[in-house]
Specification:
14 strands, outer membrane lipoprotein receptor (LolB), chain A, seven-stranded antiparallel beta sheet
Length: about 250
């Protein structure tokens, strides 16, 4: 009897010492400036479920180098940990080497390196705008709790004969086009984004487009959607742990 009591006490003590399992929200903390006040709890919960389904916040934070082609127009390489980005645009023989965190960098435009200060500054801002747009088409599911984002759960809706949970994103004073709105059609069971609807104006009821977000593949330790069924968006996606330094410093 005494031995049984000792075993029970030991088990209770072991359970008390075990770390408490973090909730999905705790595993996916919001960025500073995320609009938690105007976002509803159901929308936040759905965003956290999407992050978990895509591989989780920890794996996303550890992911470093991401490369992709955008609509066949240009190639990008992004060092997530430092903010360095390389953009190559074959149509105008241009290469942008920019740090999106500091705004510093170099630009070769039409095959000639820019050295005049004002022109270079303008083109580096252009490079960041390109990155903002092109990276969103690839990494949007990981940015649902970014600064300035407001999330609203819109309930279930049908699209192309399937039922989805609908998550609405609006923005306040962030990015190049804060007046935009998105609605994401999320799988009820697997919590994966299947389609996204884009509205140029958050006041509009009719979407400018509804596109698939499909063909998920594992890149590193996260899932990304590329080579989509509508032949649009990101292609030739790669995730690397290391890349040559000169990629971000030399033309």
């Amino acid at each position: 009897m005494k031995l049984a009591m000792v075993v029970i006490i030991a088990m209770v003590l072991l359970q008390a010492c075990e770390p408490k399992q973090k909730s999905l929200s705790e595993q996916n903390p919001a960025a500073a400036g995320f609009d938690s006040i105007n976002s509803d709890p159901a929308g936040i919960q759905l965003a956290d479920s999407i992050m978990a389904a895509m591989g989780g916040r920890e794996n996303w934070d550890k992911t470093r180098f991401i490369s992709w082609n955008f609509f066949g127009r240009r190639d990008l390489v992004w060092d997530k940990h430092t903010g360095r980005v390389r953009i190559e645009s074959p149509s105008d023989s241009s290469v942008y080497l920019v740090n999106i965190n500091t705004g510093e960098g170099r630009v070769k435009y039409h095959g000639v390196e820019l050295t005049e200060s004002d022109t270079l500054s303008k083109m580096l801002k252009r490079a960041k705008s390109i990155w903002i747009n092109d990276s969103y088409w690839l990494t949007m599911p990981f940015k649902l709790k970014d600064s300035g984002v407001t999330l609203k759960y819109m309930g279930e809706d049908s699209l192309m004969n399937n039922r989805y949970n609908v998550l609405q994103l609006t923005f306040a004073n962030v990015g190049n086009t804060p007046e935009n709105k998105y609605k994401l059609y999320v799988g009820v069971k697997d919590k994966m984004i299947k389609h996204w609807a884009f509205y140029t104006d958050a006041k509009k009821d009719t979407a400018d487009f509804i596109r698939p977000w499909d063909n998920y593949q594992k890149y590193g330790n996260v899932l990304l959607s590329a080579d989509r069924s509508d032949n649009g968006g990101p292609k030739n996606v790669k995730v690397d742990e290391t890349l040559p330094e000169k990629l971000f410093a030399e033309f």
